[in-house]
Amino acid sequence: MSSWLDYTINGLIVGNVYALVAVGLALIFGVSRLINFAQGSIYLVGAYIGWVAVVQLHTPLPLTIIFVAVVAALVGVIIERFGLRPLQNSVRIAPLLATIGISFVLDQLVMLTFSPNPRALPSQLPDVRFQVGGGTIGPLDLLIAGVGISSALLLFVFLRYSKLGWAVRAASQDRDAAMQMGVDVNRVNQAVFGIAAALGGVSGLLVGMYYNQIDTAMSLQATLKGVVAEVVGGAGNVPGAVVGSLLLGLVESYGVAVFGTSYRNLFAFLLLVVVLVLRPNGLFASARQAPPEPLTGTFIAPSRPVRIPRWALAVAVAAFAILPLLPVSFYILQTLINAWLLGMLALSLTLVAGTIGQVSLGHAALLAIGAYTSALLSLTLSVPVGLAIVAGGLMSAALGTILISPSFRLRGHYVSIATLAIGEIVSLVILNWESVTRGPIGISGIPPLSLFGYDLISPNSVYWFSFAVMVVLALLQARLLGSHLGRSFRAIRDDDIAARAYGLSLNRYKSLAFIFGGFAAGVSGGIAAHLYSYINHETFNTQQSILALTVVILGGLGNVVGAIVGAVALVGLPEVFRIAAEYRILIYGIVLLLLVRFRPQGLLGTI
Amino acid sequence: MSNINRRTLIKSSLSAAIAGTAFSRAAFADAEPILLGVSGPLTGPNAQYGTQWKQGFDLALDEIQAAGGINGRKLAYTFEDSQSDPRQSVAIAQKFVSDPRIVLELGDFSSPASMAASPIYQRGGLVQFGFTNSHPDFTKGGDFMWSTSVSQADEQPLLARYAVKSLGLKKLAVLHLNTDWGRTSRDYFNNAAKEYGAEIVVTEGYIAEERDFRSTLVRVRDANPDGLVLISYYSDGALIARQARQVGLKQVICAASSVYSPKFLELGGDAVEDVHVGTRYFPEDPRPEVQKFIAGFKKKYNGLEPDAFNAYSYDAMNMAAAVVKIGGTDRKAIRDAFARVKDVPSVIFGTATFDVATRRVKGAMNAELVVRKGQFALWDGKPT
After folding, report:
1. Residue B209 and residue A17: Cβ atoms within 8 Å?
2. A585–B43: do the CB atoms touch at under 8 Å?
3. Which domains occur in chain B, in start order?
4. Are A227 and A337 within one domain?
């Protein structure tokens, strides 16, 4: 019995830690309707600035907190001014991509300045412990709770009762109307980013002190957990974010209590999916609240796509097809094989995200399902590899569609978050379902690609095989887009109410899109499994999902050729920047930001 | 396929001939260095390990160069950043295989990245020398896969003996990283500990990104063990030790050699005092290779203490030099040389000789350390 008290206390303690990030995310979402993927990076920056203050400058704690808050706020204001404000009149998805790019740049800058080695960040509070239940809590626990709750309260009061707070809320409800009433919307945005960043920075500092450890990998985890907590509480709802965080901490702690440590995150993401399905606006959304997304499709604004003449495409396909016959190195072929595999994934995602408007952040899960199905079929049942890959595609289509179907009723950002969670759940199930997936040991000795009894081993044959599969999938998809079905998909994306009024069954069409998209992604995963010969739960991770989305947005949402061009660009760029060694991901992030800035509708435009 | 092999063979025999002439003139600067390819993480979540590799490599290379290089030629490496991502490591593998200057490849770090590249190295006929690859199937990828990673079948029974026989622990709680390394290690540890007569009362696997262990430690407490065993890296090991003390667990803590790092002491602070660590070497070890390594490392890196990953990469570079010395610059001859090198001085193994059947090295050294006054010290046999 006393153990349950301990689990409860531990859950609340870690929930406290999540709350610090979630409040900042909620504030920004409340005003700009933007999931700020750079919030975790600001948290990282705050932790390292704190380290400089504590270890190098020896500042006392209050001064450290102020110092970190000011510098982080400055970073936030700079991000808003130069990263996001230029995008405010472009497609709504552009700022999302920009925050991903900004987080790359910030993480890399910190890593280059401070080296990737973890550092100790000593707590500046006296080391007294209070006995609570079976364990103890320290002053830092109380400080973290104090900062989390008081900042949420202060923000709540600020938003409700101060004039600038009204302006913030007015701007979040209707930007244009607020501007007509004389609200300086840019000023408001700047203030909000500054406050959120200050909070983010201080939370990085406190969490770093709490664990006496900071490292450059902490930013993505912070963002993930923060996003979960924020959405559980109701996106944009500041006190809700605190409650959501505590709830998340509790669910994780009880999950560990009942099932063991390796199931911990599974519960976090299951909680998210359940909350989204039952209460799509979060636990604490009031009925009066305006819907968090506009009802019709301004999320993805159509643009005029670049028309590429058919003969040019035919020439390009022919050129790539004869490439292995020319004296090019296997390295270039291998890089292009990677691009074709990513291209298949991007085709899948551009259909799902671009054409029908379901922006998925968990697409790597489809790769994993295809890869594991194909690998296990060929290894344990000796199914021929070609057949196993097709089976992988079918399994991915079926399982992916079933898993995603609960989120069909969601809109806009909520779809992205639900798919993010589903992606994590798939990866955790693979880790824990050892009797089938072999858990963390992974599957080794997967037979190489073969077709009709002939092994495809040389880079040339793998290249031709993957290129051919991708071209066939692309042609099918282009045909689909031009058909009645494709037009229905776009109708749903552009105005789902109108589409429904015309008698389109939304769920059925969304399922069709996921079935087709799931197949392409599953095939890509299957080929990858046979190419690598070894896969485990880390092979297809969240970074892959984010990369796929970047490709799709870069190429132009819904654009088939754009998806492939984007894949070649994003596989190629980091390879091209290889000479820059440690700096290459930084350069990649900057290039990404510039592309978003000057070509927000994608290289080839949305179709 | 056969094409590239022939081309490489011609080129490498050409360069071998050039090397011969260079040697006769005995001039360093005239000869192209013998080039090794390294595939490992310099950015991304595992970037710290790539940085540590470099430190060990550079120190070993300084010593090799000072001793006259390899038959009069310098040894050098080119480090390609893979982010430990299989998609990038396969591209790097093709790059190395088709670059005739590369005679041998080292790495990658994680199993997915390393083992995805193995088929390419195997077919391309370039040795993939994975010195941190403990996955039991790594060297099964083919006869071009060799590894000096300490086999967990070797290491974990040593740790179990320390915990059960030396420290007299009877009821153990095992916490392990839920990766291929952690899982394999856990199984070897549990089996060995049971053979020594201990009981495993609870095992908990956690993911690498985990930072909060308080609830896990409540489970551990409820199982009522008399010792905690950490199969962890230094950063998560330090976190667990700290939180164990915070939630009031006072049991003896034993940790695998992978926590052996000055960072473990820095990150763990007071909480890692009295933690027992089974390691492969320790600073006061009188063996000459250890003293040379530690003195050289501190001198080169401003007094920094080396850690386990520095030692692995230092050993790996010395092994690569020994192999190239015998095998020359022909890739196939280098593979055969791995079977022929005998008793290469090594920090981890004392002297390293490959077992030709498993293509691994057996017989890691053993030292039983404990943290005393914030420093690793040889355990004096006193209970804590």
Report:
1. no
2. yes
3. 2-150+289-352 (3.40.50.2300), 152-279+367-378 (3.40.50.2300)
4. no
